[in-house]
Amino acid sequence: MKNIIFFSGCLVLLSVFSACKKELVDVVNTTITAPALQAPSNNTLINLSPLSNAVVTFEWDAAKTGNYTMSFYEVEFDKENGDFSNPVYKAITNRLGVENKLLLTHRILNRVAHLAGIAELTKGKVKWRVKANTGVVSAVSQSGTLELNRPEGTTDIPTELYLTGTATEGGTDLSKAVKFKKISDGVFEIYAALNAGTYTLVNKVSGEPLSFVLRNGLISSGKLENSPVSTKIIYRINLDFNTASATLTEIVSVGLWFSGYNAIKANLQYDAGGIWKTTFNNAWKVESWGKDERYKFRVVEKDAAGTLTTKNWGSSKKDNNRPTATEAASYYFLTAVDNTQYDYSYKFAAESVNTEVQFKMYSSGDYTHTVIFK
């Protein structure tokens, strides 16, 4: 009898499970129609301007599905002769792929063109299509074609960057190439001297696989370029690979500025590797209340148009005590500050007729300075 009851129970459970399974199948069973491309129209020519805020809107008719199922969209790009088996670029729309349109900046489309094999200063075509998916079934639109006209300027983004060549401080020996400081993804900065000669930028000290040059304020792919100067000039070079833009700013002078005197009391001379030095008579300003030992740095820069600008470098703290022999290294870190007479200044630990100061804008660590009493 127990065996009969158990067998009957199993039949009931199997019946319930079968009914549930059938109900689930009915719920997820749906249909989908392929989306139809609307814009941009086929063979549209787009003159890319990556440094602008221009965008291109890709639109398509929403896919129709059964059972009120929601569709999600992915846009794929490929070479003109590609079959989308390995798209060069993919993107989903806003709201996790629900919207049936996609906005891409000219900067991104410039990278799509590069990935499709279109060189700088040339035109070429790419294909695009839309894939609709419910999570159960999917459908793909017909493909559209765009013609992209690329300007000068690279789209590759290195993870690290070095400066090398006869015009540079390290010469052509790649083991002595000068490294850029990475500010953020694709953004680099370096303080370095350029001389007459040639240079190149490489993303590895081996020189492979990517190399770049600077032309007309843009970063371009290239192996070698003539230096922009015929005599030695110290520069702050800022590169943004996200926009392929380059800015060279001449460092005219670095001055040690005393708060008490409200003046520069010593000029630092460039040495190498982003370091300026001076040795001077460190005599503090005598005031009615004592001696004023406060100081910071003033740097004069000149842009490409010849406009001079003064930048102030000092402490992140508005007021400081004199440093001790065991002071933390962070006390000497350099921060861009305002031009007030007393605020955000450092303090010398002692007076000395032979005080050496080094202003260090090097790439291997935090911008900082050192003080040595001789």
Description:
It is built from 3 helices and 29 strands. Strands 12, 13, 18, 19, 20, 21, 24, 25, 26, 27, 28 and 29 form a 12-stranded antiparallel beta sheet that branches. Strands 2, 4, 5, 7, 8 and 9 form a 6-stranded mixed beta sheet that branches. Strands 10, 11, 14, 15, 16 and 17 form a 6-stranded antiparallel beta sheet that branches. 27% of the residues are buried. With 374 residues, the chain is mainly beta. It starts with a helix and ends with a strand. It has helices at 2-28, 94-97, 106-115; strands spanning 37-39, 44-47, 55-60, 72-79, 89-92, 101-105, 123-133, 138-140, 144-149, 162-164, 178-179, 181-184, 187-194, 198-202, 211-215, 218-221, 225-226, 233-240, 245-258, 263-272, 275-282, 285-287, 290-292, 294-302, 308-314, 335-337, 346-347, 352-360, 368-373. Helices cover 11% and strands 44% of the residues. The protein folds into 3 domains: 37-149, Sandwich (Immunoglobulin-like); 162-243; 251-373.
Notable characteristics:
mainly beta; Immunoglobulin-like; 3 domains; twelve-stranded antiparallel sheet; SusE outer membrane protein domain-containing protein; SusE; signal
Gross morphology is elongated
- Percentage of β-strand residues: 35-45%
Number of domains: 3
Number of DSSP-assigned strands = 29
Helical percent range?
10-25%
Largest pleated sheet? 12 strands, antiparallel
Low-confidence stretches: 1-26
Which structural class matches the secondary elements?
A: mainly beta
Compute the CA-based radius of gyration. Answer: 32 Å
- Estimate the mean pLDDT confidence: 88
Oligomer: single chain
- Measured distance between first and last alpha carbons: 105 Å
Helical element count? 3
Signal peptide: 1-21
Keywords: Signal
InterPro entries: SusE
Domain SusE outer membrane protein: 26-131
